[in-house]
Amino acid sequence: METPSTDSKHEKSKNVSKVASKVVVCARVVNAVAVSQGLSDGSVTSAAVAGEFFRFGGKFTFEELIAEDVVGLKNDLECIWKAVESECTGTGACWKSEIKNGVLMYLEAAEAGTYLTEEKYLPAVAKMKDIIDKLTSSSVEVKKAIDIIIEIDTVADADADSKFFNRASLYLDDAGKALRTIYDATKLITILKGTAAEKMVLSVLKLDSISSHQSGKSLTKDELTAITTKSNNLKKCLTRDIVGKMNKKMDFLIQTRSVSAAPFEQRSVTSGFIRGIKDLGQIDKDLQKSFVKKILANGASIEPLKTRLAPISSLAKAMEPLGTACQSISIPEDNVIKALRTDVEAALKETESLYDLISAHDCISAATSANSMDFKQWNSEKDRAKFLDAAVANYNQKFPSEFSVDDLKTDIASFIKLIDMTKLPESLDRLKAFDRAALRKKLEESKKRADCITTELKNWSTELTEDLITKTKKWMDDTKITDVSTCLAKNNLVQRVREAEDPKTLLNLKADNPNVKQVSDGVATLIETVAQWNKLSSKKRPTRRRRETENKIEMRDALKTSKQFASGAVVLQGLANVQKSPDVIQKLMAFEKDIDAEVKGLKDVDQEKAIKTLWNTNNKKAIKELPNSIDSLEKAMNVDQNQISDFKKVFEEAGTINLPELDSFSMSQTLGFVRTPAGVQQTVAAFGALDLQFASAKKGLVSSVDSLSNLQSYFDGIFEISRAGQSRSMNSAASSKEEKDGDDSVAIYIVYGVVGVAVALVIVVFNTNGRGLSRYCRRNGKVEDCAVKSSRPSSQHPITPPTPLDFRPIQLLRD
Question: What is the 3-state secondary structure (H, E, C) of 96-124?
């Protein structure tokens, strides 16, 4: 399938937004039909489809969605149809053909890259309504749900500028109320436990936790097994196709390329791909292992892949101050934010009269027109956001308050920019940690402050406009200038502006002509800035082909254009000079101060603590002492070969990991590597990547083997680092393991835990030249001398010089 050819990326975005909305609708219709036919696990299927689309839609670019993921979802739906067909054993028809025809009308339009025009859209809606009519007799709730789906989707379709997440959130908030009567919350949430769709469904059903379902109690293990088995056929349809797509992306991403040649989307998709592995691992552990094996098999190509992630990390670090303050008020699902965005945009439209005034009257208009500068071109949301972003930064420098520029994190442009989460997918991961109920309450409280800034913006626009009109009218009256042509004839401004090589020479206009001398300082600054702006923007524009290429490199494109916007920011400064008052800006800052204080109260304390604790003095000390801990570990290596075999057997029977042959690693190489600074860091990273639930099973697993008792202090040091900032401490987790020893969740924790123990054993139980310590001791002395010989080998049997192990795949997965 070819990427649709459109005139601008904005049009592509709108088109794919429509496609995304339709695919979600299709999934819900399939679900509703499945539910109406008594297929309770059909709800899981469509929820999973929607959940996968949410995840992929947020992490991959619009071009990729058009070129690849829509086709993949089509395959998913076809697989679901087959599953529904195989499950339909009742007397009624399953409406397979009706569903397929209706959904395909959407997808075919998407593949063709066309808008779902009235010609194509209305028949599709009619087909859906036909399905509704057939379902009426079997389920009133289904009819209500689908009515809401179509109604909301039609409304969203009329708004060409609506983004995908806004549409999806609109659907989830409103249609979720009707869908709640259909879903069996107990079964749905239990089956979705640990998947990407879980939180989405919890949000729809307004449930605080997995245990807060309709029945008020958790499912038994047998019930969970039965439900999982019943839905397995449908789940495999999804995971199988996802694996194919992820593998395809993996093959593409591991190609060796320089950072400069790697478009931003590739780096972004790389980051999303790594998170995707972890998400898929929660759905199916076997899938996770297959991806890990593939990464290990391509170890030689890991470094350039890791290098490509560096710009993402740098970007995230650079945005941390702003992101920390704004992320909690940029949740797209929240109606308060949508209302705020509407208010801000309405206020911005008020300022358009100011731009019209500048471009339509007096000699300033002539100067701008002479340099191909039209202020109206900045009326789009995207350009206004960038323009105001730069302008506010400039104001902060000109009118400093008690805050520094870095402390002012919530200007108007940031609101608009961060609400569009498709441009910052990394924020979605951070948002998951927040308590939405508490956040919603806080946002409602901050709505009054949002109204405050909206009012100030409108007042600001009105004051500036009226002030400039008054000054311009007085100037034209004083100079007897009645129209622009007369102004041009008297002052020859067009020619002067064209010939001016140095923008500063334009200021001489005031000295040359008594009429121009009456122009205020603010207007003079404005003229100078226009020349500066146009000097930057008058460079030869790239060809269409190159422009289309650069459209795919959003980051690079934004960096190029931001320089022009930055110079143009002084335009607003000039207007402020005309106004001769910084009061409005001070009020703007006061609002930002309030918001900043509000946001600080909303931040995830555990997450903040984790970041700080990870690098505090205690952990730095723990890292420095790690080599000493490893020395103690080596002395505790008097492990009988039978014990090693028993451990290996336990792990393999648990089905968590297939350990390689123990003789294939060298203990000395391992310990030699982890003693190096890089080894210490990567070893800590490797343990930090273990599932945090490992702590619950760690105490019982370690203490069950007397010969490994000395590992207790070692693990304590490791987990102090890897679990820093988590809301549940290691001791409480371990104690809960003892208190709930018979609970089903402990078994799950142990399965998670053995992954960590397996990694630890790579360090713990492997020795020199690929031979077990016990074999080494039996060949060179008595078994009881093992402890001495293993820690102090004789000169006749020197330890092989250490060779660094490659922990990069583990580090990469953690990143």
Answer: HHHHHHHHHHHHHHHHCCCCCCHHHHHHH
Residues whose CB falls within 8 Å of the CB of residue 717, separated by 6 or more in sequence, listed in order: 622, 625, 626, 629
- Angle, helix 9-36 to helix 164-179, in steps of 10 degrees: 20
Kindly give, in sequence order, each residue whose CB lies less than 8 Å from that of residue 583, ignoring residues fewer than 6 positions away: none
Copy the structure tokens of residue 405.
Answer: 């520029």
Q: In the prediction, which pLDDT does 66 show?
A: 34
Q: What residues contact 172, with CB distance under 8 A and at least 6 apart?
A: 200, 203, 204, 333
Burial 396-424 (b: 16+ CB within 10 A, else e): beebebeeeeeebbbbbbbbbbbbbbbbb
Contact 442, 602 (CB under 8 A): yes
pLDDT below 50 — which residues of the chain?
1-192, 194-221, 223-381, 383-384, 387-388, 390-392, 394-396, 398-440, 442-454, 456-458, 460-462, 464-465, 467-469, 471-472, 475-476, 479-752, 759, 761-815
CB 306 within 8 A of CB 815: yes
What are the structure tokens assigned to 793, written together? Answer: 């080998």
Q: What share of the chain is helix, strand, coil (3-state, %, to 5)?
A: 75, 0, 25
Given this model, what pLDDT does residue 477 score? Answer: 52
- For 363, the token pair is 């000699």
| CA distance linking residue 106 with residue 18, whole number of Å | 9
Contacts of 447 (CB under 8 A, 6+ apart): 336, 339, 340
Burial (0-12, 13-18, 19+ Cβ within 10 Å), 319: middle
Select from 231, 212, 266, 238 the least CA-distant residue to 51: 238
Class of residue 650 by CB neighbours under 10 A (exposed 0-12, middle 13-18, buried 19+):
middle
DSSP letter, residue 69? I
Q: Which residue has the tokens 């961060």?
A: 418
**Contact partners, residue 511, CB within 8 Å, separation at least 6:** 517
Asked if 761 and 647 touch (Cβ cutoff 8 Å), the reply is yes
Distance (Å, rounded) from C-alpha 237 to C-alpha 376? 51
How far is 163 from 382, CA to CA, in rounded Å?
13
The greatest distance separating any two alpha carbons of the chain, rounded to the nearest whole angstrom, comes to 113
Look up tokens 């459109």; give the residue: 6
Q: For residues 468-479, b (16+ Cβ closer than 10 Å) or e, as one string? A: beebbeebbeeb
> What pLDDT is recorded for position 474?
53
Domain boundaries, the chain: 9-299, 330-600, 609-814
pTM for this prediction: 0.16
CA distance 571 to 453: 21
